[in-house]
Amino acid sequence: MDHQLDPCLRLQELGIEHHGEEEIAEKSSSWDNLVEEIKGIIGYEFRNPSLLRQAFTHYSYLDQDKTSTASYERLEYMGDAVLGFFMAKEHFAMYPDLAPGQLTKLRAANVDNEKLARVAMKYRLHTFLRHKKPLLGGQIKEFEEAIVEYPVHSSGLVDAPKTLADIVESLVGAVYVDSNSMDTTCKIIRNLLQPMITPSTLHTHPVTMLYEICHKNKVKLESRDLWKETGEIEFIVDDEFVGRAKYRAKRVVANNRAANEAYHKILRKLRLQTTRDDHH
Prior knowledge:
mainly alpha; Ribonuclease iii, N-terminal Endonuclease Domain, Chain A; 2 domains; 3-stranded antiparallel beta sheet; RNA binding; magnesium; RNA-binding
């Protein structure tokens, strides 16, 4: 498989702009070369190019192009199932001593929206997407900036556009349908999803970490929900402010970021206290 070629360079050679998602959909040259472009990314050449076109067609585009009769949704459904099976099979073989609960968490992290959206961005798969979603370009740009701040899987600290994850699932589904081979599809998934999350790199959810450290140290934890008014969530421990985050787009992301800040502030305070105790 050719994983050395930079997808961004290939797109530039075609004259495709870095963030022009809707404009890209209109460039026939990119569609004429779609099979070759995807082959360069995943190392597989489609026998039925119409499957590939379907895999990159959002339902919002169907009204625009009367020649397209199907969106990626059915292929996404298939890809979701194949990805889940692949991860279960892979982890069952790789980690014979891992309990079912941990296997479930590991599988979920490797196929969640954030992980798959990161894959889509890594290979610029969104630049092939045909859609008529006016807000998607801005959401993708925001996500691209967020993953610079959070370079590894963050367990809820970034807002991953679901559409990015969808097209990874639909591409996997298209490969499976086209090849009619689970072995072929699994080889592609294994390469596409690198680096995979392992037990040692699996992060605990920030809210879970916060509650656990407060429970362990017998401190009172309170939250202040100002999200509807200001987009902010705050955490207070023993009447002392410890964490705040603002994210107007989604309450859950604001909550996770505030919890993450609070956890690390408590951790630093406990370490400082331990250091002082050691010196007395």
